[in-house]
Amino acid sequence: MSNFLKNIEKLNKALNTKKLPGKKVQYQMAPPGRPQEYPKHNSFKQAAVTLFLYNKKNEIYFPLIQRTEYNFNDKHKGQISLPGGKLDESDQDLYYCALRELEEELGIKQHKIKPVGSLSELFIPVSNFKVHPYVVYSDKNINFVPQPSEVQYIIEVPLKNLLDNNKIKTGKIILENGMELNDIPYFYFNDHVVWGATAMILNEFKNVIINY
């Protein structure tokens, strides 16, 4: 068994043999003032994202995407995120939704994907989405084909960078509309700022790995 598959096997055990840390760890990377309690209504829009692990240079990598800035239907336009999107009526379930979005946005065929586990759901107030993150992998050769209407470019991140505490910063974030947010925790990968829901999801994944 390759080192890549051995590490995937360890991650599978880490995600499926212990209780997930959930909000306690997610909110270490939350913007100040973000409400921790979900609204009492149940009219959330459901969505799914993938943390897609693949082998590059004998290391585990995962992709983030820079969303296009001109998609006015996307409340998170211009931001860096995990591949994913909302649950469609035609989707069999949320996991299927995650794989469909991965294929649509990055061109990764579903038959090349295998499951590793899932992370804690996360509510996103600005869009009323309840996001369900899935960790998946492929041991096949990967050739990304980004969808031009949704993906401006792809950021390939070595997993070791996620585990590096020096990649966590705190500072000012300027939104696409010009609004400034202060004292925001974020990951700094490949000269890119990764904050908000994506950073919260990644921080739980990081915690699962280092505490297994």
Observed structural traits:
3-stranded antiparallel sheet, 5 helices, single chain, 8-stranded mixed sheet, alpha+beta, 212 residues
Please characterize this protein's 3D structure:
By secondary structure, this protein is an alpha+beta fold. The chain has a single domain (about 5-35, about 40-210), classed as Nucleoside Triphosphate Pyrophosphohydrolase (Alpha-Beta Complex), CATH 3.90.79.10. It is built from five helices and eleven strands; from the N terminus they run H-H-E-E-E-E-H-E-E-E-E-H-E-E-E-H. The chain has helices at about 5-15, 25, 95-105, 160, 195-210; strands spanning about 45-55, 60-65, 80, 85, 115-120, 120-125, 130-140, 150-160, 170-175, 180-190, 190-195. The strands form two sheets. Strands 1, 2, 3, 4, 5, 6, 7 and 8 form an eight-stranded mixed β-sheet that branches. A three-stranded antiparallel β-sheet has the order 9-10-11. The model has no long low-confidence stretch (mean pLDDT about 90).
Brief summary:
This protein is α+β, with helices and mostly antiparallel strands and 212 residues long. The chain has a single domain (3-34, 41-210), classed as Nucleoside Triphosphate Pyrophosphohydrolase, CATH 3.90.79.10. 24% of the residues lie in helices and 34% in strands.
Radius of gyration: 16 Å
**CATH fold label:** Nucleoside Triphosphate Pyrophosphohydrolase
Query: Which H/E pattern describes the elements?
Result: HHEEEEHEEEEHEEEH
Mean pLDDT: 92
Assigned CATH architecture: Alpha-Beta Complex
Shape from CA axes?
globular
How many beta-strand runs?
Answer: 11
Number of helical segments? 5
Strand content: 25-35%
N-to-C CA distance: 21 Å
Which spans have pLDDT < 50 for at least 5 consecutive residues?
A: none
The number of domains = 1
Q: Tell me about the largest β-sheet.
A: 8 strands, mixed
Helix content: 10-25%
Pairing-aware structural class of the strands and helices? Answer: alpha+beta
**CATH class, anyone?**
Alpha Beta
The name of the CATH superfamily reads: Nucleoside Triphosphate Pyrophosphohydrolase
